[in-house]
Amino acid sequence: MRSLLWKWADRLIGLSAIVGTIGLLVGVVVVLVDVVGREFHMPLTGAQDISQMAMVTMVFGGMAIADRLSAHIAVDVFEGVFPPVINRVTQIIAPIVGAVVFLILARAMWEAAALSRMLNLATNIIFLPKAWFQYMAVVMSVITALAMILRAVDAILGCPRSEYEADTKR
Amino acid sequence: MSDIAIGGIGMAVLLAMLAFRIPVAFAMFFVGFVGISLLHNSASAMSLLASESFTLASSQELVVIPLFILMGNVATVTGMSRRLYDAAYAIVGSFRGGLASATVIGCGGFAALSGSSVASALTMGKVSLGEMKRFNYDERLSTGVVAAGGTLGILIPPSTGFVIYAILVEQSIGRLFLAGVLPGLLLAAMFILTVTMLCYWKPEFGPAGPKTSLRQKGRAFLGAAPIVSITLLTIGGIYGGFFSPVEAAAVGAGLVIFVGALMGHLSLKGLWSAARESVVTTASVMLIVMSASLINPFLALSHIPQVAGDFLVNLPVPPLAILMLILLTYVVLGCFLDSLAMLVLTLPIFFPVIVNFGYDPIWFGVLVVLTLEMGLISPPVGMNVFIVKSVAKDVPLGRIFAGVIPFFLAMLLTLAIIVAFPQVSLILPNTMIN
Amino acid sequence: GVAAAVTFSAAAADSLKFASWVPAAHTITEGVVDPLIKALEEGTGGATDIDYFTGGELGAGPLEQYVRVVQGVADMSWGLPGYTSSQFPKTMISELPGVKGDKPGYELLWNAYDAGLLEKEFPGVKPLALWLSEPNVFIMKDHEIRTPEDVKGLKIRVSGTIAGDVIAALGGTPVQIPAGELYNALQTGLIDGLVTGTSAIGDFKLDEVANSYTYNVPLGQISFYTIMNQAAYDGLSAEAKAAIDGIAGRTLSKSAEDAWNRKAEAVLESMKAAGDNTIIVLSDEESAAFEELVLPVTDKAIGQLGAEEVYKTMRGEM
Ligand code: NA
Ligand code: NA
């Protein structure tokens, strides 16, 4: 059961990372086209709009995989000082706190997106609707939270899975 | 319960969560969110959570972070970083700690390109940490030097630290930038001195390499030519007005990709995995930046900075003592707070007092930025140390903080020198702008 | 202990949070916040006051200020419609070249607001002040602008689509740069200049790097709002409501616009005194050459929005 859940979670995490990586590459290309075009008096209209939203895509797209690869930074100074039981508790609590944070973030972003629609908010030059990107952030935050919940369950059952499959297969 | 008590408890809870290895970003988000909910209401905590994280994630100024990481990653994948450090090793490798000193110089050069310490530490970390490891440098020295060297980014112009200071207290950006130049060079020199002394004391920190012939040096340098020219082109493009510092990051990344592909060192697959790794690093760094931005309004609402500041500036002691206490406050606050947030919260209280005492506001700006740099590497919340950790995943954070100590002391000494000899910072602005 | 805590929180409950994303020294303090504090002090005898958060303490940047007021992070804040222009298409008619004429800018905005034409662009809030800046000018480095010809081929920073159309109509290249990078961009020559109001020159220290300024060009102006959360207003005591009502609208807007104009005057005087600046004031004839190219942009923008009614109401022609 859990391995099936993990399989699906890892697929979602991988997808989210792909979207984020595309965001980064789009950002690079758009800025380059704008810089070169400007020298020929043909700047790319809305380059700033696109690169900003590409950045949002990348930042939220990378959240789940960063957690999966244990890239979220913790202060490990006292690791050796505490008894093993405390470290075990930390392994359970940390993903729970993370999941709570990302679920609250998703909820907050959801409300903000509704407000963006009410206020008709969009980027300033080519009017990319802000709500699109906020809904995307909601989805990516929920994926991150789900992965963290699974990680907490693993820790409670005492069999933490440290390897990320998609990463080892790569 | 009073606002101040809630603020104090919040900070204590934050420290406890960090000690128990809750990831830094989760802990700061949690404390910031609950704190704002208590001091104001949960609706506004939700609102700030959404608006601050979206604003930061889409911030034009922070776009440099993923772009520079990408540049560093691609430089590493294509072997450009390796050839750069081969060249550095051939030239200064025979000195103890030579590569670490070369990294300080690299950080100084990068600081002329970027106004942000985070971007400096990330890029230099990506480029140099693996390389110093290759030459058997102690991980405390290599991570410490990158974390500390990266802070030069806000002292050597351009600098976001000076821009924010200038706008907050209505001072000239141009004068502040000039005032940062000599202290920046002095600090870089102090870092090199620190490296040299460390390696004199413990040779195994940065083992000396074999002596090389002039020919070997020349050949190694030729190998580093692509990455050196790309960096020079990028810096030149900024000062030549072809692109902005933000765009320079994309240009640098684009050039590294282009040259790497041209030389046959970069496959599409290699590019994709370098980009994917950049996304992971960006996400973990941005999550900390976003969470720090929630601690800021929490502390503002608690009125702690205001009350503490008012208490401090009204102490019945001479001006120099007050100045020292203010700088000390910045160093202490820097242990917990995001640096720039700290300026916003405290400058309105401290600045009028400093001006009243007749101290030069430009000089004070340099002192403040120096203390901000110290805050970037001091535990428990040291942004640059987290940055280095995000690059060097296998090095325990405690070892990075240990490695940073000598450089922190070097900064303290530099701060003392500039307090004692204000001319170091003021001579350039006073002679070049009247 | 307990009693003190109770009074402390009771006092805090009657404090309205005014959030500003700029330092306290900014013109907004003198033009809007101080008058509001004074009105509340006089109207309520200190029972309701303002807790003033500056420098973005309650959340950084101008972009999200409206959202923060609607969601109650702050009770009041101020901002520029131009930063989120998709929300304020009709309000921003007031920014177009040739719209303002000789009347005070806030009259245009309140004419339209009172006629019910702008309400839909301000949901969830009570606008306390709406005003216009001093006229936009050319702020240039190493280029003097006297005729439309002089703009040809120059890279000029703009912040919105219509400003971009204006620059394009004059033959320049509109460039998008974040406000925080203006100083560097001018210094290095990434941009040749920008278009904004005189007061912004001081805010971003642009006088250190720019050296030529052209006045009396039809480049429009910038609009501003100060808003209050509707629920926060509804929850006020009768005295506090009366105090706010007594100043909100044209009175507070006039105070803001006057403060902006005074700031612009002061900046202009200091630029003249500095001696190393070229200040060009076009004659009306010279200005007409610009109008010929620029006013069609205004007409087109109004036509596209179908906002002839807003335009005429603003100008008092309805
Ligand atoms: Na710098
Ligand atoms: Na710190």
From TrEMBL, chain A:
GO terms for cellular component: plasma membrane. One of its GO terms (biological process) is C4-dicarboxylate transport. The chain crosses the membrane at residues 12-33, 53-71, 92-112, 132-153. The keyword Membrane applies. It is found in: Cell inner membrane. Keywords: Cell inner membrane, Cell membrane, Membrane, Transmembrane, Transmembrane helix, Transport. It holds the Pfam family DctQ. Residues 28-156 form the Tripartite ATP-independent periplasmic transporters DctQ component domain. It is a multi-pass membrane protein. One of its GO terms (molecular function) is transmembrane transporter activity. Part of the tripartite ATP-independent periplasmic (TRAP) transport system. The complex comprises the extracytoplasmic solute receptor protein and the two transmembrane proteins. PANTHER family: 2,3-DIKETO-L-GULONATE TRAP TRANSPORTER SMALL PERMEASE PROTEIN YIAM. Belongs to the TRAP transporter small permease family. This is TRAP transporter small permease protein.
From TrEMBL, chain B:
The chain crosses the membrane at residues 29-50, 62-80, 100-124, 145-168, 180-201, 221-242, 248-268, 280-299, 311-333, 340-359, 365-388, 400-421. It is found in: Cell inner membrane. Residues 12-423 form the TRAP C4-dicarboxylate transport system permease DctM subunit domain. Keywords: Cell inner membrane, Cell membrane, Membrane, Transmembrane, Transmembrane helix, Transport. One of its GO terms (cellular component) is plasma membrane. InterPro entries: DctM, TRAP_DctM. One of its GO terms (molecular function) is transmembrane transporter activity. Signal peptide: none annotated. Its main location: membrane. It is a multi-pass membrane protein. Part of the tripartite ATP-independent periplasmic (TRAP) transport system. Belongs to the TRAP transporter large permease family. The complex comprises the extracytoplasmic solute receptor protein and the two transmembrane proteins. This is TRAP transporter large permease protein.
